[in-house]
Automatic annotation (TrEMBL):
This is Succinyl-diaminopimelate desuccinylase. Keywords: Hydrolase, Metal-binding, Zinc. It comes from Lentilactobacillus curieae. Coiled coil: none annotated. Its cofactor is Zn(2+). Belongs to the peptidase M20A family. Pfam families: M20_dimer, Peptidase_M20. Residues 209-312 form the Peptidase M20 dimerisation domain. InterPro entries: ArgE/DapE_CS (IPR001261), Bact_exopeptidase_dim_dom (IPR036264), Peptidase_M20 (IPR002933), Peptidase_M20_dimer (IPR011650), Peptidase_M20A (IPR050072).
Length: 419
């Protein structure tokens, strides 16, 4: 396939709006594209207008590598973009557009790799299974559904092509804001940044571990009365504030830490209480998103929070309730690194970057949390052509990195399947 065709496929995907929905239009495009090259793809309807997609090449046997990407994007403020975010624009070697980095470039590279390997008849042993999901940005429901259907059960390795690039000038800040690297590797990286003449403008990393996450709501109920007689009622905001202070103290005292992922990260995001200024509020709530680590996993966190609520509810005027809205476990590779090593060994052949794909841990989450729930033994590799412009205005991907990473994956995957 010519480079111009590969770039056009990415542009086509960007031009399909799929902001937390409408993924079926992306699936339809991919089904047609796969079909042109003799690859049968199966749409799996999950909600109206929202479909997951699965396609395979190979002999159906092991090794089996899963290739996963999500079809949805985050919302964006179109007014702040230099150009229409729903129309791919190519400028100075970069492609701009919503999802260019997160992660339609990653999705496109897997599709192109599958097509090229099929056209070459290169997968004569083993299997490649492509899985495109819905709703990764909000709920990971697509990955959850595919996992429940068994698509992760027999995987030996899984690659998720989330954006993993960092502009060279932002490396220091990157590791001060939720990413974790071995100190020795960081020293090597800093030295390479100062001495290396091979510069793509970005340094890409393999994410070998990431935190889990959980969103929950704590509701407080009271008794509404006229604000001129507050002593006759029960102010739900007061109850919620008492809980919030206890919750904040609880998180501040957590000492659990993971060498790859750091500590649990607590972020109370939404508070709401009261409807009008002349009535004591009888309802208030808080919503929290917390990033979790294996040393203090989600189930233990839920138990601890429920204990705080149970103790506070012993006060007659306090009525609190905890609801866990979404819960995804941390992801860490335990001893499986064959594919990781192949990608690192081949990286210098294709990417002109200071170091060949150092392994790091990050605080963000991916669909891997759901797939690992179904198959905790497989190797998980998170690597993709995008960068830290994801979720930002004027999101972009470097065209040459996008093209070269396709070849990197092809070479490494063929070697892995031939082992």
């Amino acid at each position: 396939m010519k480079d111009t065709e590969k770039v056009q496929i990415l542009k086509d995907l960007i031009n399909i709006p799929s902001v937390n929905g409408n993924e079926e239009a992306v699936s339809d495009y991919l089904v047609q594209l796969f079909g042109l090259h003799g690859i049968k793809a199966k749409k799996i309807q999950q909600f109206p207008g929202r479909t997951d997609l699965v396609a395979e090449i190979g002999d159906g046997g092991h090794p089996i590598i899963g290739l996963s990407g999500h079809q949805d994007t985050v919302k964006t403020d179109s007014i702040k973009w230099a150009d229409d975010p729903f129309i791919a624009v190519e400028k100075d070697g970069l492609i701009y557009g919503l999802g260019a980095s997160d992660m339609k470039s990653g999705l496109a590279e897997f599709v192109i790799m599958m097509i090229e390997l099929k056209d070459m008849n290169a997968v004569t042993h083993g299997t490649l299974r492509f899985m495109a999901t819905i709703s990764e940005e909000l709920t990971e429901q697509g990955a959850k559904h595919l996992t429940e259907l068994g698509y992760a059960d027999d995987l030996d390795a899984l690659i998720i092509s989330e954006p993993t690039g960092v502009p060279l000038e932002n490396i220091r800040e990157y590791f001060q804001g939720g990413a974790f690297i071995d100190p020795h590797e960081y020293f090597k990286l800093q030295t390479a940044l100062e001495t290396s003449k091979q510069q793509d403008g970005e340094q890409h990393f393999i994410v070998g571990a990431h935190k889990g996450w959980m969103t929950y709501k704590v509701e407080a109920r009271g008794k509404s009365v006229h604000s001129s007689m507050p002593s006759l009622g029960v102010n739900a905001v007061d109850s919620l504030v008492q809980y919030y202070l206890a919750e904040k103290e609880f998180y501040s005292k957590l000492e659990y830490q993971n060498s790859l992922l750091g500590k649990t990260v607590y972020a109370p995001d939404v508070f709401h209480g009261g409807e009008q200024v002349n009535s004591v509020p009888d309802y208030a709530y808080e919503q929290v998103k917390v990033r979790t680590i294996p040393e203090f996993p989600n189930n233990q966190l839920i138990e601890a929070l429920q204990l705080i609520i149970t103790e506070l509810n012993e006060t007659p005027t306090i009525d609190l309730k905890l609801t866990v809205e979404y819960s995804e476990d941390p992801v860490i590779n335990f001893g499986r690194s064959e594919l990781t090593h192949l990608l690192q060994e081949n990286a210098s052949q294709f990417l002109k970057q200071p170091l060949p794909l150092p392994t790091i841990g990050v605080s963000l989450g991916t669909d891997a949390s759901e797939f690992v729930r179904g198959n905790p033994e497989m190797e998980v590799v998170i690597l993709g052509p995008g960068n830290t412009s994801a979720h930002q205005v004027n999101e972009y991907v470097d065209v040459q990195v996008y093209l070269k990473m396709i070849d990197l994956f092809k070479t490494s995957v063929i070697s892995y399947l031939q082992k």
